[in-house]
Amino acid sequence: MNFLLSNNSKRRAYRWQQGLTLLALICSGAFSAMAAQAISTQVITAQATALQAGAAKTMAANPNVGEGEMLPAHHNAEQANKFKPVVYQMFTRLYSNKNTTNKPWGTISENGVGKFNDIDDTALKSIKGLGVTHVWYTGVPHHALIGDYSAIGVSHDDPDVVKGRAGSPYAVKDYYNVNPDLAVDPAKRLQEFQALIERTHKQGLKVIIDIVPNHVARNYHSITKPEGVRDFGEDDNQALEYAKHNNFYYVIDKKQSSGFQVPDLPESLKPLGGESHPLSDGQFKEIPAKWTGNGSRLAKPDMNDWYETVKINYGVRPDGSHDFPALPPRYATLGAEQHYAFWQQHSHELPNSWIKFNQITQYWLAMGVDGFRYDMAEMVPVEFWSYLNSQIKHSHPEAFILAEVYNPALYRDYIQLGKMDYLYDKVDLYDTLKAIMAGQKSTAQIAADKAKVQDIDSHMLHFLENHDEQRIANAAFLGSLSGNASTDAVDPRYALPAMVVSATLSTSPTLIYFGQEVGEAATQNLGFGHASRTSIFDYAGVPAHQRWMNEGKFDGGQSTTAEVALRAYYQKLLNLSTGKNAPALLGKYDSLDAANRSALSAAKASNKANNKTNNGSATGYDDSTFAFVRFEANTADKQGQKLIIVSNFSQTQTKLFSLKLPHSLIVQWQLTDASYPLKDLLENHAAQLIVEQGEGQVQLQLAPLSSAIFELVH
Predict the structure, then answer these.
(1) pTM of the full predicted structure?
(2) I want to staple 118 with a disulfide (CB 3.0 to 4.6 A). Which of 96, 232, 525, 631 is the partner?
């Protein structure tokens, strides 16, 4: 999603529309030859009939299964995926741009833009080498922007309702085509993206794109929609604030203006930086005004509202009540096919917006896209997600589905009822790791955060950067917690322990944002976007990434020694994290934190009683150290891999301590009293595990910001 105009908070959202979700009906229509074949009405009707017949047989055989239910499936896409995903978020417009001008508010000719064709086999091999399994191409669907593509029939966008010059990728203008900026030949932009999909697949990588279900651009109009598909709002009754099959909500309050009014903006945020433009007149014709994307019901929204977008109606009445069938709570324990069958039985009751987004997702799946990242998913009812995602899983069982949800109280609803594969683990793990790096929280909170999501742990995607967040290598990343307003570059290595923990703590996917691996600092104010985040609104180059890109060689030929070393560390860590060469990372987890804090407390009490203190910088296990184990179970013919992972978050202190492995773990690992060599798979630490009287000890010395992934050598 787009962030707020202020640097330290998200854009304002009106949360009245929280709810549950649904799955998707596939409609008829000649999308493309491939898409039409994939979603033919006859096939869907036959599938629905077969599903309903199967459901009826299941219910007859099992009286405990309710109407529309089927017994839980024993196989799903997650089980079929043998290795842990690593997602590389690429901001497509910026990724392959070689132009280094970076003029604030610069035009596409001044600052340049990356193209689909520039993301060639060399680029993709470079990404694949990091250990990446999925590429999230951000900003692909055609969104509002300031550019002239009238020659190919694209209408002009009004700068008064476009953020930046290049535009926000989350104000989609046409869901059935791609951003013309990204094509060498804009008339053939869709074909150029299809070629990129093919190249990506050729390298063994999966393709993810954004779907933004909560809102669309104020100027939404598809010129390439398939035959039979209607535009959002095309059939709305605009005289009503709400109607079930309206796609938008309308401002009909007589106390307000009948038409939309552009919000008052400070000079620093004037369209195009105050530059003259034929359409930039402080007005945008929209009568009646529509509700704004974040739920504002004002004809003249606030500058912090998502004024460039309009909210989609999913059958949630203005009072928050639902105008669609309720999904029974028991469906939280049922699989996607059971959800699919439920919605097939209620297909005539679905709001029109549900159908439209199902058409959109099936169109892109038929194009070869492998999954979606849903923007601000929690602002759309869970029932809709049950509907849409079960339809996706019905046609493409291994589709990758990632959602932006920030309310921990809703996590289980969106995973279990909404059938999301993965959610961002931001509010707990990301925020905790950031606070630990800033010295404001103890590492003990990591274990507490993991315990909170123990039952859904594999669904919580971990990250330290994405397009919404500040760059690690910018002082503002931690300064936002301490009050330091600097946006200068800092050494990004302080985040390596957090990255190790984030990537190895669970079986959930890891996400990195392009440029993170080479320490991009985002220190420039480029127009609508401000320093500390890489701008998603402006035409720009990304300096550290451009140095790695080296005019398209993707070999680090212009990178600094520190940038090359940082990327090598990420590469080693991420390749380990997939579990391909470290299968224990796909296995069980056990925290060593509590046991070692108990040992530390006992040692402190003993030292105090004997008037002893630690000397110099050598300190024991404390609030800046964290340790845990990942392991495979032993079998009759194989010793499962055992890993001991420990990190020192301190930027200044070396840690010298004896790491304790409790008796219960030693029993589980079936170890006898002996000395066991340990091999560090990440750095070069030397250590051994000594088991005496059924308890384990590892003598460790960790330099500042150092981590170890020790493999037990049998």
Answers:
(1) 0.89
(2) 96
